[in-house]
Each structure stands twice: as C-alpha cells, then as structure tokens.
Amino acid sequence: MKEFIKQLPKAELHLHIEGSLEPELMFKLAKKNSIEIPYKTVEEVKEAYNFTNLQSFLDIYYAGAKVLITKEDFYALTWDYILKCKENNIIHAEIFFDPQTHTQRGIAFKTVISGIKEALVDAKKEFGISSEIIMCFLRHLSEKEAFETLEQSLDFKEDIIGVGLDSSELGNPPKKFEKVFNKAKEYGYKLVAHAGEEADVSYINEALNLLHIERIDHGVQAIHSETLMQRLKEKQIPLTVCPNSNIELKVFDSYKEHNIKKLLDYGLNITVNSDDPAYFKGYLNQNFFNLIENLPLEKKDIITLVKNSFKASFLSEELKNEYL
Ligand code: ES4
Ligand code: ZN
Predict the structure, then answer these.
(1) What's this chain's function (predicted)?
(2) Is the CB–ligand 1 distance for residue 248 below 6 Å?
(3) Which of 197, 198, 206, 248 is catalytic?
(4) Which domains can be identified in the chain, with CATH numbers?
C-alpha cells in the first residue's frame, strides 16, 4: 500500500509555504541575515515543536518566518518545497502564503510574491509541476489590515488565484472578514477559508454563508452537524483535511480517532494535505502512511482521496479531465 501511495500522482491544496521552512534552512538564513533565533541546534528546534493547540504552534511558526528577508530567501523556501513535491509525486500544488507575516516586518509584498513565483516558474520548467498561489489574510489582525493587504495584492493579481483566511481561529469568526471577502470576489479572486479546525460548526456555516467560499480548509468539525454534512455532501464542497496537523495540534488525540474515514464514507469531497509539513512531522505521503496505519482505509479510499485532490483543485476542467 505504501508503494502504491508513493507512486500515485497527487495534488496538494492546503500547504502554507512558511510552514515548509525546515530547521536547516532556518539556521542558514538566520546566519546569513543576522537574525536571532531561540535555538542552537536542529535537535533543540525539534524539541520546541511540541504543541498543545493551534496558538502554541502559531507563536513558533511566526517566529521562524522572521528569517525570511530577501526574494532569494523566498525562492529557496519555495524551491525546497518543490523538491519535496518531486519526492512525494505531487504534480500540482496550490500554495498558501501569508503576506502580512512579512509586510508587518517591513518586507515588501513584491519581495515575497516574486521569490515564490520564480521558484514555481522554475518548478514547471524543470519538473512539469503546476501550481497556483493563494494569499491568506491573518484573521487575528483587523478587517482594515486585511483590506490594505487586498489592495496591495492587486499589482500581482495575475500571480494570485485566490484568497484564504488563516491564523488564530477561536474568537476570529469568518463574519469579521465578510466585506473583505465580498470585495475579493468582485476582484475575481477565488475564495477559501480555514474553518472548523478548532472552532465549531458555526464557523463553517459562516464561511459558506457570509464569505461564499468554494473550499473549506480543515472543516473536520462539520461532523457535529447533520444539516451541514448533508449540505457539504449535496454540493460536494471540498474539505482540505490535514491529518498530521490535526494530531500535532491536538484536534484529535490520535490517528485512530481521526474522523477522515467517517467524512469520506458519508460521501464528502475529502482531500489529504500536509498543512505545515516542516512543523508537523512529514510531507504528503507521510500523512497518507499515518492514516493507513491507523484507520481501515482501503485502496479504493486512497484512490478517491487522490482523485478528489484534482477535482477540488482550481485546475481548468480540461486539465482535471486529463488527470482523472
Ligand atoms: C495554520 Cl494549521 C493552521 N491553522 C491556521 N492557520 C495556520 N497558518 C499556518 N498553519
Ligand atoms: Zn492550514
């Protein structure tokens, strides 16, 4: 089964590029850019990656991102992820980045997006890997700051397919960004949002009803509402589920308790993704391995999950048909 998973061509739809920053590159960039980081060795870093919930992770994730300064740094970060795509047989990736994590530290929007974009252009040239970029608003920041970010993005609109919503979920409901998302839609952006990762089903309902999103990131809490489950099934609204992330952030106590098989058996459009692989102990294949080792997933389930990753993508209908 592992060999079967490895050789399957896959798409990844929920990957924060800042979450693919491996400790080795973090040290290298910290040294080059004279940025202090609170670790001396790679082992110390790995020990620090011991999370109790989403916020305990985010604190460390934002601290790590401070080593990224130049366009070349964002290129190196993205290129390292592309090499992992090659290893994991990911042939299409829709990549999140958090502009505000960088613009708030005085790094230009252009520096960030051009470094990421150049690596993705090279990925297509070198390996034939296709990709899209989605920019996420940080939900712990204000509506006003999200609007400023939306306006800044317009100069790079041809390189950004859509907008998302991430960071601290509890206390920052989708409603806070209703106007921003409606404006983003007017600009022609596709819409996704993290919802129902830690927070309850009301956040998923709001994301659908007020933000009009096309895809739900995480969404695992949907299981607590029969009405919502029916709607997700009927409309085949995709959920980008991230198993390793859910375990590392204690959304579920163990892989055996993860509800992905239940969501899939109900008939939802479920995909498997790695979220922040450098922080959550593994890339896409490792997420699948952890699932098959702990849940009664059959070969046909794996095929469904991988097919869903293409169906749920923002690829053209023509390209989807080619891959399916
Ligand atoms: C994130 Cl796992 C997760 N949840 C919410 N926001 C995030 N940003 C990066 N990883
Ligand atoms: Zn995420």
Answers:
(1) Catalyzes the hydrolytic deamination of adenine to hypoxanthine. Plays an important role in the purine salvage pathway and in nitrogen catabolism.
(2) no
(3) 197
(4) 2-22+74-313 (3.20.20.140)
